[in-house]
Amino acid sequence: MRYTHQLHHDKLIRPRFRWLSAGIFFLIIAIVAVLVGFSGLFDIDKTAFIAGFFSSLFRISVAYILAFVLAVAIGLTVSANSEIEEMFLPILDVLQSFPSFVLFPILVVALKSQPDLVIILVLTITIIWPILFAIISGVKGRREDLEEAATIFGAVRQKKFFNFTLPMLLPSIVTGSIVGWGEGWEFIIGAELLVSTHWGIGKYLGQLGSSGQNSSLFFGVILLLLFLFLINRILWLPLLHNSTKYQADA
Q1: pTM for this one?
Q2: pLDDT for residue 3 is more than 80
Q3: CATH no. of 2-246
Q4: Which of 6, 136, 147, 162 is most buried by its number of CB atoms within 10 A?
Q5: How far apart are CA 50 and CA 149, in angstroms?
Q6: What are the residue ranges spanned by the domains of the chain?
């Protein structure tokens, strides 16, 4: 993976760059606090915005967990045998290009009273592909000598899975997760506009746009981007750096 390859050769970050990174992080927090404090100037309903954001965050988190579990199960199953891989990999490759939004009319009719479930299911389908193909790529690029050594030292079945396979795949999983997480946020804005939900950041921003509150809509988008930056800075960037210690040199 191009992200982990670069980080692996630059793991020893100078302290001054860490201080700079920490400074930028706290600056962003201060900017968010100031913007939230001035939200009344732009007719932003802070309760609706925050409730909408965390509702969307909950949906994406549930969808990510489902996508992660399915991606690990499918990826390891497909990669376990060359014949299975040759049979199913082309099918998976075609399915990943299938537009997820096409499923909305079917699921809305089938699950009329559960709009959240409709969004989560389609989100899961959207998020799973980057993680799945990253896992397959990670398995294909594994070090066979290390795998044999793990088996010799008694790592079998569950012990091998948790102590060798998952750590080996961690760099691939994290990079695939970052891509899938980003695609999930792109997708959920449109999903919450199409499906009738009580709370959701997409629904709230859509209401601002439909009512002609363009300045409030612009301000809301800026706030959303800052919130997402904080999530990436707090969660995904540290995971990306820490995952490189599990990467084996070729």
Answers
A1: 0.78
A2: no
A3: 1.10.3720.10
A4: 136
A5: 50
A6: 2-246
